[in-house]
Structures are given as C-alpha cells and as structure tokens.
C-alpha cells in the first residue's frame, strides 16, 4: 500500500488520529521531517524523501488501523471485500482508540516529572524509517517510549499486552533489514536512557550493562578504568548492545572472537505480558536447564525486550599490527583467505574489499592523503605476543605471495595501524557518500563454508558486474561472511527488480553451498522468504510455536523473522 493510499485511508477517521501529550492536549510540530542517521545527527533530506507532519501522522496512525483491520478481516468482523493481501496472517491489534488509551495508562502508571512518551513526528519517522536499511515497509509507530528502568519497560509491556499494542524495540538503529520498522503501528521502545554500566566485575572479567550502551562507549569506559579488558565484538560504530544481542551480530573481530552469542553470560528480559525473567546466573558455564540465552540472542526482539546483559570481557593483547595486500583477482584474494584459515594461523581479523570498493574509498577521500591501489585487497589484523605477531605476519605473507598477492604492507606502529585499517572502516560511509538524487545502497550479506568462499564470491561478483550498476563486494572473509553493496535508483522499477533478482540469486547460491542467507545482518522484514528457503516450513513451525508460547498476542516486533502463518 502506497503512502498516498495510506493517507487517503486515514482521512475518514478524523479525531481518532489525534496524538495527545501528557496534559491531554493535541501536540503538533510544524518542522519538516528530516532523515535522521543512526548516530542521531540529521541531514537535509533529498526532495523525494521529505515528509509533512500530516503525512507522518497519517501513515503512523493508519499503520495501527491497518494492523487492526487485517486481524478483524481474519476473524470475520469486517466485510470480505476488504483486501489485506498476504498480511492477513496476523491477529487483532489495537484500534487507534485503544492505542491512545494504552498511552494514557502508561503515562498514568509511570508518572514522574518527565513524560517518557513522545509523539513528535521527527521521532516517529526516525523510529520507523532507516537510512541504511534495504527494507522499509510502510508504516510508522504511533508513539515512542523512552523507559529509564526494567520496571518501566515491564509496565509498558503489560499495558501493551492488555490492549494488543505492537511493541518494537529500538537501540542503535543501524540494522539493515528493516528490523525496527513498524508496519502495524504500535509503540517503539527506545532504550536511549538505559545506557549505563550497572556492575563491573574485574576479577571475574565480566560486566553488567544496559541495552543502549554502545560497544565503543563500553570499551572507552573500560579503558578509562585501566582495566586491561575489552569487549571484542565490533559491528558498525553506532551499534548498541541491545541490538547486537537481538541480531546476534559480529564484526571484523569475529574470526578470532566469535559472535555475540559467545559473549553473553545472562540476560534480563521483559516478556510480552510484562513478566521479568533472568536467563541464568553469572558463572562462565552452566548446564542447568534450557539454554535461554541461545533462545533470546538472535530473536530480534520478537520474544522479549532485553533490559540488562552480563557480558564476558577479554584481555587486551600485548601487541597489535595490521597488514594490507593486493591481488590481481577476487578469486585469488578469496583463495588466500581460505588458505590462511585452513592453515590455522590465528589472525585477529581478515577483511576483503574488491577493486570497486577500493575505488569508492579513494573517491570518498576519507583516508586522504593516502591513495589506495584499486585492486582486490585483503586487510589483516594480528594480535598476541610480540613474537607471535611477527611470526604470524611472516606466515600470512608467505601464503598471500603463493596466491599472487603483492604490495604487502604491515604497520610498524599505532599510527600506521590506524592508517592501513582506515580504508576498511570507511567503506560503508564512502559508498553512501556516492549516492545521487533518488539513489539508495542495497547492502546485504551471506556466509558459506570456507571451501566454497572463492566460488561464491567470483560468481556473485560476475553477476553484479553484469548489472551495469555501481556495485562492490566486501566483508568478513575470515569467517566466510561477505557483503554485496549495490547503488540503485529506487524510482526505476526495472532497476529495482534487477537488483532484487541479483540479491536473491546470491542467497540461493549460498544455500546451495550449504551456507546461510545472512551471516550477521539477521532476517528482519527483508529476508523472511530467504529464511524459509534456508530452514524449511517444519523448522519455521518450531520457531512459531516458541513465539506463540511466549507472545500469544503476537505483539513483540511483529512481522520480523517470519509471519504468523505461511
């Protein structure tokens, strides 16, 4: 349904679409909607993306009506002539009147000097639309809640459960598959005020944190305490712990340190009805009962809201270094990467960027005055003892040379480390900076076993090049995970279809090689069909049964991972 049709659908409902502030009066804003980045900064919108206040409120309000209408249709309360496409598979959600009543009850119960509920159109847009995401289903939340504690989150969930109001968790806002979109309206729960270290246990090498602390902020605070410890999972710089748990994210360090699931000791979770649970206690290992950590990590907020997490920490290595090496082809680079892993060399990170991506970095100028060779390139990080780092650099150099690698550079000090790694860190921002009016970047990922890495990258790159669009390959090649990034014109339907077909082919190719449709971006709204291809209907049935047991009203981040019925 287009935004125009949504706006038209909203018109007959008049007063029921009014948003109220804590005094019960109408609350308006005349500012145009700005596109807000995940870091919180805003930029001037491209003309095609400017939203008016009335447009935002119509879409947000109608999303709630739409969700309610779909379920009424499914339960036979509305005329059969009303069409809701494939989205009939959802239960009855709150009407707009019920959503407004839920907001009033939340305000009354939580009270306090500060109103934790926002209906500001800028907030609604920022919590329902993502600049980075390849999937942005139409619809916005009707309100954003900013809780300060687990108790307040529990209150919000209990009242939303009572009125069947959808709940969408939000932390860093940097996900790429429409993970925090609000297709059925509801309340976005933003943990921005829950960003503290609750408890640091230096001798046990763990830390208890709230969900909105960023991994970089956490490491900065650990460094200020001179702890000698750090948290090693390193996705995008704006990522927060809550979202990292929800997507089971990873990053450049995954080849040595694994993914998010490997660093979670326990979780405090608010369930759909407001019940608060703790998944386990604080020892590093336990075989007591079900592994609930494994259930909630990667569940994308569809089973509960994480309000605290106890995380393992690692010792900061004695020595670091970085190396960069170029190759004549992407297959040569991928083959070298696979051999490094198969040989058992303990690299801390191993990243790949093709010649297009290296050109992007040069064009963006973010690493100036450094100019990079525009060839397929591998980036290595080494860590450990000084002797160990020297030895591993030599072993990697030998393998890359045998696979036609050249121009091998390694950092001799911290300044050179930062310079050599800068191209990898600036890759996404450099790609985004190249967009023209009406263009977007489609960024998605897959992962395959090491032995098939060179095959899938070579074939996928060939298909991308045949699109005739600006497209590149990069990724965490050390664990078989790589990304396609394609710039396309969102207004050109034929071009969009070509890109969609290319991405689907990459996913199917990965599955044929016993890989996965996503190594770290997760499913969200955008890859539900891919998940069905990967695991099959029976396995999805098990997932649905778990979801129904914990969230029978289907209010926790609905529409993500899978639909209620196939």
UniProtKB/TrEMBL annotation:
Enzyme Commission (EC) number: 1.1.2.4
Keyword Membrane: yes
Cellular localisation: Mitochondrion
Presence of keyword Cell membrane: no
GO molecular function: D-lactate dehydrogenase (cytochrome) activity
Keyword vocabulary terms for this entry: FAD, Flavoprotein, Membrane, Mitochondrion, Oxidoreductase, Transit peptide, Transmembrane, Transmembrane helix
Residues in coiled coil: none
Lineage top rank: taxon: Eukaryota
Pfam families: FAD-oxidase_C, FAD_binding_4
Protein name: D-lactate dehydrogenase (cytochrome)
Organism of this sequence: Podospora pseudocomata
InterPro entries: FAD-bd_oxidored_4_C (IPR004113), FAD-bd_PCMH (IPR016166), FAD-bd_PCMH-like_sf (IPR036318), FAD-bd_PCMH_sub2 (IPR016169), FAD-linked_Oxase-like_C (IPR016164), Oxid_FAD_bind_N (IPR006094), Vanillyl_alc_oxidase_C-sub2 (IPR016171)
Family of the protein in this entry: Belongs to the FAD-binding oxidoreductase/transferase type 4 family.
Domain (FAD-binding PCMH-type) ranges: 137-316
Known cofactor(s): FAD
Encoding gene per record: DLD1_2
Transmembrane segments: 50-70
């Amino acid at each position: 349904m287009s935004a125009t049709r949504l706006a038209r659908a909203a018109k007959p409902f008049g007063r029921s679409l009014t948003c109220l502030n804590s005094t019960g009066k109408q609350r308006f804003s005349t500012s145009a909607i700005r596109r807000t980045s995940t870091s919180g900064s805003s930029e001037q919108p491209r003309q095609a993306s400017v939203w008016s206040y009335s447009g935002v409120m119509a879409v947000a309000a109608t999303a709630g009506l739409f969700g309610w209408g779909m379920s009424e249709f499914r339960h036979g309360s509305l005329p059969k002539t009303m069409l809701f496409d494939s989205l009939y598979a959802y239960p009855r959600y709150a009407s707009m009147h019920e959503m407004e009543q839920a907001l009033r009850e939340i305000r009354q119960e939580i009270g306090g000097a500060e109103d934790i509920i926002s209906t500001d159109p800028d907030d609604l847009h920022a919590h329902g639309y993502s600049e980075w995401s390849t999937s942005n289903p139409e619809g916005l939340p009707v309100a954003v809640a900013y809780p300060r504690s687990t108790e307040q989150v529990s209150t919000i969930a209990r009242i939303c459960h009572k009125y069947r109001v959808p709940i969408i968790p939000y932390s860093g806002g940097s996900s790429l598959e429409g993970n925090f979109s609000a297709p059925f309206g509801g309340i976005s729960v933003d943990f921005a005020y829950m960003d503290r270290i609750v408890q640091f246990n230096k001798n046990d090498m763990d830390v208890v944190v709230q969900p909105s602390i960023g991994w970089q902020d956490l490491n900065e605070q650990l460094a200020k305490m001179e702890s000698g410890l750090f948290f090693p999972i390193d996705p995008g710089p704006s990522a927060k712990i809550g979202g990292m748990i929800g997507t089971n994210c990873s990053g450049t360090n995954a080849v040595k340190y694994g993914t998010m699931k490997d660093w979670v000791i326990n979780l405090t979770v608010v369930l759909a009805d407001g019940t608060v649970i703790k998944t386990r206690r604080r020892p590093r290992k336990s075989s007591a009962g079900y592994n609930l950590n494994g259930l909630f990590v990667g569940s994308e907020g569809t089973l509960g809201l994480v309000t605290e997490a106890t995380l393992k920490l690692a010792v900061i290595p004695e020595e670091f270094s970085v190396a960069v090496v170029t190759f004549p082809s992407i297959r040569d680079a991928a083959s070298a990467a696979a051999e490094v892993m198969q040989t058992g060399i303990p690299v801390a990170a191993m990243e790949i960027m093709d010649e297009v991506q290296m050109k992007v970095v040069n064009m963006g100028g973010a690493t100036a005055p450094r100019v990079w060779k525009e060839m397929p390139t591998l980036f290595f990080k080494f860590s450990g003892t000084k002797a160990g780092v020297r030895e591993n650099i030599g072993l990697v150099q030998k393998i890359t040379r045998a696979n036609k690698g050249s121009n091998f550079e390694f950092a001799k000090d911290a300044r050179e480390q930062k310079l050599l790694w800068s191209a990898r860190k600036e890759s996404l921002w450099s790609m985004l900076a190249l967009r023209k009016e009406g263009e977007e970047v489609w960024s998605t990922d897959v992962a395959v076993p090491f032995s098939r890495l060179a095959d899938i990258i070579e074939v996928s790159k060939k298909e991308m090049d045949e699109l005739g669009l600006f497209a590149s390959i990069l990724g965490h090649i050390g664990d078989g995970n790589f990304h396609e990034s394609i710039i396309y014109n969102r207004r050109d339907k034929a071009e969009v279809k070509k890109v969609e077909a290319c991405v689907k082919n990459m996913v199917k190719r990965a599955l044929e090689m016993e890989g996965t449709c996503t190594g770290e971006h997760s499913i969200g709204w955008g890859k539900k069909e891919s998940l069905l291809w990967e695991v099959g209907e029976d396995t999805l049935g098990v997932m649905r049964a778990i979801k129904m047991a914990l969230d029978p009203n289907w209010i926790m981040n609905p529409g993500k991972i899978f639909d209620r019925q196939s």
